[in-house]
Write a structure and sequence with these properties.
The chain is an alpha+beta fold. It is built from ten helices and four strands, in the order ααααααααβαββαβ. The longest helix has 30 residues, at about 165-195.
């Protein structure tokens, strides 16, 4: 039990915060839906409920993925967070389907909702809370990448570095981006339906919210399916390759592979050095490179093989991969 508590303390904080806030929001929205019968409010209730459950599982998965390797599982548990995220998106997928189905039904059979003021207030408060969680997720993206930003630059910089954020942080960012947009869309639909008597607008808003939820499902599924299989991080391969080639004793790189497992990066490197160097000198080069590579964000282990220079240049400078 003590080990589990220690692991949970290392879980993704933005996911835990998002789970708590979305659970509160879901309860408030559900109460408003029961009172008013507003279909856009139903869509938002499903959205917040799905996000809360999803983000709670993500928090648990991110914590358990940090468990140290064991004799039975020598490669560690890094990919566990990817597996949890694959399961978590199923919840969002189900909620998205129900949201679209209910919206479609309301478009075909529109009914007038009551409690206009209650709906606007609840959706307004919920959207502000979602924006707060989204801002925290943006800050977490910057923290994951060791980037400093303040004021409006947080917004733009977080999008730039989103591709290199931890899987759990990326999920919270995407979900709360859609949640914020969905909240604004629901407010517009409720206000427009109230003043125009075109009650189908609430159903259309529900369908659009469901479609946005499916976008998150697809994006998160593809990202984490690649993580479960073991995805090569080409951007980090380039960065580490350039770092290694800058070492005066490294003549060439025969091969470099950086595998992403959950939040961890595993580096395998094969370099060429001057064949006249002693074993002790080669060992010093290896130790020096390992220390530098382990200093990179996310790298947890490095395997370096050393070969003698063969006179054939294998490493070629390529264009730096763009951020995802």
């Amino acid at each position: 039990m003590g080990e589990i508590v220690k692991l949970l303390k290392r879980g993704n904080r933005s996911a835990m915060l998002a789970a708590i806030v979305n659970a509160i929001i879901a309860i408030i929205k559900a109460a408003a839906y029961i009172f008013t019968g507003n279909v856009a409010m139903f869509a938002e209730t499903m959205h917040s409920l799905g996000d809360a459950a999803n983000q709670f599982f993500v928090f648990v998965g991110s914590a358990l993925s940090k468990k140290a390797p064991t004799e039975k599982y020598p490669n560690g548990f890094g990919r566990l967070v990817n597996l949890v995220l694959l399961g978590a998106v199923l919840i969002v997928g189900i909620m998205a389907f129900e949201t679209i189905r209910e919206g479609y039904h309301h478009v075909l059979h529109p009914t007038e909702s009551g409690g206009f003021i209650i709906n606007v207030i609840v959706l307004g408060v919920a959207t502000l809370l979602e924006m707060f969680v989204l801002f925290k997720a943006m800050k977490e993206v910057l923290h994951d990448n060791h980037v400093d930003a303040t004021g409006p630059s947080v917004f733009f910089t977080s999008f730039r570095y989103l591709g290199r954020a931890k899987p759990a942080t990326k999920l919270v960012f995407l979900e709360d981006s859609v949640a914020t947009l969905g909240g604004l869309l629901a407010i517009i639909a409720v206000v427009a339906a109230h003043f125009t008597d075109v009650h189908q607008l609430e159903g259309i808003a529900s369908i659009l919210i469901g479609v946005m939820m499916f976008f998150v499902v697809g994006k998160v599924f593809l990202d984490n399916a690649a993580g479960v299989i073991g995805q090569a991080d080409e951007e980090m391969e380039y960065k580490i390759g350039e770092m290694v080639m800058a070492d005066p004793d490294v003549k060439d790189i025969q091969d470099i592979t950086v595998i992403k497992e959950g939040e961890d990066l595993h580096v395998e490197l094969e370099i060429e050095i001057d064949p006249s160097l002693t074993v002790a000198a080669a060992d010093d080069i290896k130790d020096r490179l390992e220390e530098k590579i382990l200093g990179e964000n996310g790298v947890v282990d490095v395997t370096i093989e050393i070969d003698e220079e063969d006179g054939v240049m294998t490493w070629q400078k390529q264009k730096e991969p763009a951020n995802e």
